[in-house]
Amino acid sequence: MSEYLTLNKTNWDERAPLHAASADYAVQRFVDDPQFLSEVVQFDRPLLGDIQGLCGVHLQCHIGTDTLSLARLGAQMSGVDFSPASLAQARTLAQRCHTPIDYHESDVFLAAEVLPQGSFDLVYTGIGALCWLPSIERWAQTVGALLKPGGRLFIREGHPMLWALNEDHSDSLRVEYPYFERREPLVWEDENTYVQTDSALKATVTHEWNHGLGEIISALLAQGLEITGLVEHQSIPWEALPGQMVVDERGEWRLKEAPWRLPLSYTLQAVKRPA
């Protein structure tokens, strides 16, 4: 296993139980309320549309709250993640909610080797996933391999312009990190995760990459997908730029001042063309 996979997997294995226990992921609310959906999927619903009866797969599903939410909207869902600790939490949640979801442990680049190729109506990738992948072309190959002709990709992600900003500056927007994909990763060391927790991480080093919007679109086009929608949003579901943001009633954060200056996230949809 390459260094980045080892480091990132160990980090996410540590995060999984902390996330499952946090109020941010609202695990108990999923159990108590069969109609409850994650904030991310709630945001997606107007563009996601009717997914009743679709065969779907959620790539990089983590502890499965978004996967479960898609299943509650009527899709027959599978989930893929490289972290066994995350999948253990996802399976437990699905069982507690009496919802059949087929989970698989796999690096996303190998997902088409553990799932039936060309058999999915919907490939879903949630927010905060692509930054962990060194190659957007290999990700697009996985998407193209899993979708059946006419099947749809739906992704909401943090905007690459946001990822290029240094969040340590609380008084200005400063582009200090790559916008385009580079071979070498950004190497981070942080004992904290993005939810409220009293526990510090021991596996503190992670590797991440940015991918420009044009690179993402070009990679999908190369795999025979047709772009059917691209919406850039002025909000994102966490305080990505501390000290410069305000939160709304949906849990979405936007810039306090002149939010039109910066796209914070985007929704991209594409359909696999017939062979």
Automatic annotation (TrEMBL):
Listed name of the protein: Methyltransferase domain-containing protein
One matching Pfam family: Methyltransf_12
BP-aspect Gene Ontology terms: methylation
CDD domains: AdoMet_MTases
Entry's Gene Ontology molecular function annotations: methyltransferase activity
InterPro entries linked: Methyltransf_12 (IPR013217), SAM-dependent_MTases_sf (IPR029063)
Keywords assigned by UniProt, alphabetized: Methyltransferase, Transferase
SUPFAM superfamilies, per the entry: S-adenosyl-L-methionine-dependent methyltransferases (SSF53335)
